[in-house]
Write a structure and sequence with these properties.
The complex is a heterodimer of chains A (51) and B (707).
Chain A lengths: L1 H26 L6 H7 L5 H5 L1
Chain B lengths: L1 H12 L1 E7 L6 H12 L4 E7 L4 E7 L4 H10 L5 E3 L5 H32 L4 H22 L1 H12 L6 H20 L7 H32 L6 E5 L5 E5 L8 E4 L8 E6 L2 E4 L1 H4 L5 E3 L4 E2 L4 E2 L4 E7 L5 H14 L7 H26 L3 H15 L3 H20 L2 E3 L2 H9 L2 E4 L1 H5 L5 E2 L6 H11 L5 H12 L8 E6 L3 E6 L2 E6 L9 E6 L2 E8 L6 H10 L3 E5 L4 H11 L2 E3 L4 H13 L4 E4 L6 H6 L2 E5 L4 H6 L2 E3 L5 H36 L5 H20 L7
Parallel strand pairs in B: 15-22, 15-24, 22-23, 24-25, 25-26
Antiparallel strand pairs in B: 1-3, 1-4, 2-3, 5-6, 5-7, 7-13, 8-11, 8-13, 9-10, 9-12, 14-26, 16-21, 17-18, 18-19, 19-20, 20-21
Classes of the chains: A mainly alpha (51), B alpha+beta (707).
């Protein structure tokens, strides 16, 4: 029983964290351009960083 | 107050946001080229590309305007049109609200499951009671939040004394939650929070998929559309010009339209000579010459020198708006077509209601007591939950339309796929549909030197003939020659110097054919002729359609001779000299004879036929009006996506039928068990999620069908 008193709040807290994080990603617009994200990794912009 | 302060701040810095739609971006290179290229333009603060929507959002100083930015984009090699702030915001909001509800339901489902599993595993006494209370604590807010889409739709239906799929869902969820709360308070054996929340989760998954698909294709089509001018330069009494938004234009204003600008209102040319590209209205890419007294329409693009235009009609009175309205009305009759899901739910909802009510009454008569009777009635409502039903259609359609997008076909909505699957006869327009709709040059009689010079000259011009010539030459692998002093002169042509020799691409004399230019190198002149060639794979596509039992024929506005040549070449029936009304009549005739025709066409003259046909497809080069009217739009130079669309649509409907069969089979098995009072919450929950997963997995098989 004592274990549950700790574990259940922990489980709920983790779930809530995940939910909050998901809402943040939505508000941040991370799902607005899914096709673009897959192309952007191919952009070679190392020059900008080095220079 | 605070909002006003922010705006004041922005005004101080002189920043503005402009969005452009750039249909031409296709790869990672384009993203980098646009973003980096724009960043170097003076006055641009930030530029961010949204590849999915084919848009670029630019934050810039007010010192430069839309025209400058469009020019900068054109220099980078991209055709761009400014668009209104965010026309898709409303649809986007709906999809986002559904996604949020789905996330909350998922969170609730997982945590309640966690608690339920231990109760099923045999937790008893105080632990069970505490777990029920905890479940209630999670479930009540989750149901209140995630259930809203269903509750509001059910309320709406009940208000109009109708019933839809959402009514039994809402009743089931609310009753299950209510009874579970009662069980929790009275320390009873079972709580059904897990069932109620899981039901919401799977139903929301189906709805979210549906909404996402509609947004995705609409964004794709939106990128091709919206070419009508947003604003215009209006002459002021003192001779200066002022930029005026399209909505604020009024008849009798005099607007100055620069080359490359699209018209924001209908009007009559007062001064200036030039050519306008009417592709938006007619799908015809050859520019039409205009001069004093000619009528021009909103959406047309001025190709040459500046034109002074007296406005005659604005906004909703313009020809293009009128056409859009007519098509809307023509399209209305089609939406009466009963969609499969609605058909099922119309039978399903009352059946579920009466089954649950019968279970309750039956067990009351059998003497089970009101409590047990209610538990069984709820079990019936939950186990018959149309989770699998709700996923059966959208899951298959989302997978199919995503597969089609990758092959260059944008399907507007799910019902379009349904109708495409049913067609049994295909009618094609000729110009712009079976043909490319773009002029291609006959370059067989050009030698290597003149080809190189012609390419270098053509690349300097935005004229459709120059573009066609440049494309034909570039396909032939010709490298452009190095020219100096290249200049374009409106209405005459492009000229330059090639190592001391004057060279030019010029408009031929009056006597020459309309689709030709004269290439002059020094004193020698040579004619280059253009034609509008057939799409390469027309024959294949027609054969493919024939293999599926769909006979093709051609309905064309062209003269009979041109059409007859095509008839013998392709071996399909063709009719020429058809006016828009004739095409409409031909379609009506087919429909009364019991056929379900597919219309493929591009021009304004096909608009009514596209709207009236059972299903319709337009090429990406079609007029905006036609793209609006069509169920699907295909992009690129091949006609094959049309045949592919029909094949995939048929496979999709096959999968949908399988899904329905499975969902119904599941209910046929589960309902008697639930009625007999033999279903425990554990079995109900597992059976429910399993049936949904099977439906999704079955739908995923479609992703391979478009190959």
């Amino acid at each position: 029983m004592n274990g549950l008193a700790i574990l259940i709040p922990v489980a709920l807290g983790l779930g809530l964290m995940g939910l909050t994080f998901f809402f943040w990603t939505m508000r941040d617009g991370q799902y607005d351009d899914l096709d673009g994200a897959s192309h952007r990794v191919l952009i070679d912009d190392d020059d900008d960083d080095a220079g | 107050m605070s909002a006003e302060t922010i705006f004041a701040d922005e005004a101080d810095h002189g920043l503005a946001d402009t969005r452009f739609t750039v249909p031409g971006m296709r790869c990672a290179g384009c993203i980098a080229k646009i973003e980096n290229g724009l960043a170097e333009v003076d006055g641009v603060e930030t530029a961010r590309v949204n590849f999915s929507a084919k848009r670029v959002a630019i934050q810039h100083r007010t010192s430069i305007d839309e025209g400058d930015l469009a020019l900068a984009l054109r220099k980078l090699g991209f055709e761009a049109q400014a668009v209104a702030a965010n026309p898709l915001a409303r649809d986007d909001k709906e999809a986002k609200a559904l996604l949020r509800a789905l996330a909350v339901a998922g969170f609730g489902m997982m945590n309640i499951m966690l608690l339920s599993v231990s109760v099923w595993a045999g937790a008893g006494g105080a632990t069970k009671e505490m777990f029920h209370w905890l479940s209630a604590l999670i479930a009540v807010p989750v149901v209140a939040y995630s259930g809203r889409p269903f509750f509001s739709s059910a309320l709406m239906a009940l208000r109009y004394r109708r019933t839809n799929m959402d009514v039994p869902i809402s009743i089931g969820v609310l009753l299950a939650t209510g009874l579970s709360i009662y069980e929790t308070i009275s320390g009873g054996e079972h709580a059904y929070f897990d069932g109620a929340v899981m039901l919401l989760f799977f139903l929301l998954a189906g709805r979210t998929l549906d909404a996402t698909m509609r947004n995705k294709t609409r964004a794709g089509i939106g990128a091709l559309l919206s070419r009508m001018g947003k604003s215009a330069s209006v002459m002021q009494p003192d001779g200066s010009t002022k930029r005026v938004e399209a909505e604020q234009l009024a008849p009798d204003m005099l607007m100055l339209v620069a080359a490359g600008e699209s018209l924001a209102a209908d009007g009559i040319v007062e001064q200036g000579r030039g050519a306008i590209d009417n592709a938006m209205l007619t799908g015809e890419s050859t520019p039409a010459p205009v001069s004093h007294g000619d009528t021009v329409h909103a959406g047309a693009i001025n190709m040459l020198g500046p034109l002074y235009i007296r406005i005659t009609a604005v906004a909703a009175d313009t020809a293009i708006a009128e056409i859009a309205r007519l098509m809307d009305e023509a399209g209305q009759s089609r939406s009466k077509y009963v969609r499969i899901a609605d058909r099922a739910s119309r039978l399903y909802a009352p059946a579920v209601h009466s089954l649950a009510a019968a279970a309750f009454v039956g067990w009351m008569i059998a003497g089970a007591g009101w409590h047990q009777s209610l538990v069984i009635a709820i079990a019936v409502l939950i186990i018959t939950c149309p989770c699998a039903m709700g996923l059966a259609v959208p899951a298959a359609q989302v997978v199919a339309s995503n597969a089609l997008i990758k092959r260059g076909l944008l399907v507007k909505d799910g019902s379009a796929l349904e109708r495409l699957a049913e067609i049994d006869i295909a009618l094609f327009d000729k110009t712009g549909t079976l043909t490319l709709g773009e002029p291609r040059a006959d370059i067989s009689n050009l030698n290597a030197d003149s080809a190189a010079i012609a390419l270098a000259l053509a690349q300097h011009s935005q004229h459709p003939l120059s573009k066609g010539l440049a494309q034909s030459l570039a396909e032939g692998g010709t490298p452009p020659a190095a020219l100096t002093d290249v200049a374009e002169e409106s209405g005459i042509g492009v000229r330059g110097m090639f190592g001391g020799i004057s060279v030019a691409l010029e408009k031929p004399g009056q006597a020459a054919a309309a689709m030709s230019v004269s290439l002059r190198i020094g004193d020698a002149a040579q004619m280059i002729y253009f034609s509008d060639p057939l799409r390469q794979d027309v024959g294949h596509a027609v054969t493919e359609l024939g293999n599926m039992g769909v006979s093709s024929s051609i309905l064309s506005g062209d003269n009979r001779d041109a059409v007859a040549a095509l008839e013998s070449q392709l071996g399909i029936a063709a009719r020429g000299d058809m006016k828009p009304a004739d095409k409409l009549q031909a379609l009506e005739d087919l429909k009364t004879r019991g056929h379900l025709p597919l219309m493929v066409g591009d021009g304004l003259n096909d608009g009514p036929a596209l709207a009236a046909a059972h299903a319709s497809i337009a090429p990406g080069t079609a007029s905006d009006a036609s793209q609006q009217a069509a169920d699907a739009v295909f992009i690129g130079e091949k006609l094959m996506p049309v045949a592919l669309a029909v094949r995939v649509a048929r496979r999709t409907m096959g999968i949908v039928r399988q899904n329905f069969g499975f969902a119904i089979g599941y209910n046929v098995l589960a309902v008697p068990l639930a009625l007999a009072g033999m279903v425990t919450p554990l079995i109900a929950a597992i059976a429910m999620s399993l049936s949904s997963l099977v439906v999704v997995a079955n739908s995923l098989r479609l992703s391979r069908s478009a190959r």
